[in-house]
Amino acid sequence: MDFMTDLDVQKYLEDGYVVLDGLLTSQECDELRQRMVEIMDRMDVPEHCRTTFSTYHDEQLKTQGNADYFITSGDKIRFFFEKGVFDDKGEFIVPKHRSVNKVGHALHAYEQLFKNVTHSPKVQGIAKKLGLCSPVILQSMYIFKQPGIGGEVTPHQDATFLYTEPLGRVMGVWIALEDATLNNGCLWFIPGSQKIGISRRMVRTPEGTFPLTDFIGKEQEYDEEKFVAAPVKKGGVVLIHGEVVHRSAENTSEDSRHVYTFHIMEAQDTRWSPDNWLQPTEELPFPPLYPK
């Protein structure tokens, strides 16, 4: 029995997303969360996060530090923090483990447990069911959505950041390691919005210029009424079409909402834009999803 049914495929193609229960067992979710605790125990807090500002110039250096740290994170495991978790001396004002917004972008390459999940038979089965011939992994992230401070993610399309020609070659695989509910910031989608194209792109700027990335075009205005919530149980997965409009609210609850997510691209007859912030490197070409 396929993990993904024909009906699921139909829903994904029509709505631009589909929720599937039971990709991981509860125990597998807990193992990934435990491994992340260990990774954070060894965490190096980058200097730019700790900088205290006094002048406009210092502020610029911090911004530049942030940008460098982000744009070179495609083949590394790096830490991105929630706003307001450091005091003016660069020390944590909330417990360290509750300060991180996300960890990215190469867990799938360097962390065995995350690699196993990414290349699991069920994930490969999903890709085959969707007819993908030579899917590759672009990036991966662990997202925390911390209790009380997990920030909102405004409406966007993943193709804004992960642009391909033609469009429609990228899919997000969003795995709930805890229940994602209306209270703790589950995803919301505009069903069918993957058919409208994209109006905004994030691109690398020419070398030697700052900022390192810029936006072309702007995000459309979306009708709040059209968003539909997609709660998902622990161990479930949401498949996200690269052009579907989605968002998540801030987390004002007492519960975290841990997620492991990664993006797959059909590499056959696809051009990955050299303007994307994320680029394959010699150390880490985009790894194929299927075994060679």
Automatic annotation (TrEMBL):
Keyword list, A-Z: Dioxygenase, Iron, Metal-binding, Oxidoreductase
UniProt cross-references to Pfam families, sorted A to Z: PhyH
MF terms in GO: dioxygenase activity; metal ion binding
Entry keyword Thylakoid: no
SUPFAM superfamilies assigned to the protein according to its UniProt record, in alphabetical order: Clavaminate synthase-like (SSF51197)
Classification via Gene3D superfamilies: q2cbj1_9rhob like domain (2.60.120.620)
Coiled-coil portions: none
InterPro entries: Phytyl_CoA_dOase-like (IPR008775)
Cofactor dependency: Fe cation
Function of the protein: 2-oxoglutarate(2OG)-dependent dioxygenase that catalyzes the conversion of 2-oxoglutarate to succinate and CO(2) in an iron-dependent manner. However, does not couple 2OG turnover to the hydroxylation of acyl-coenzyme A derivatives, implying that it is not directly involved in phytanoyl coenzyme-A metabolism. Does not show detectable activity towards fatty acid CoA thioesters.
Similarity-based family: Belongs to the PhyH family. PHYHD1 subfamily.
Name by which UniProt lists this protein: Phytanoyl-CoA dioxygenase domain-containing protein 1
Organism: Parambassis ranga (Indian glassy fish)
Upper lineage: Eukaryota, Metazoa, Chordata, Craniata, Vertebrata
Gene giving rise to this polypeptide: phyhd1
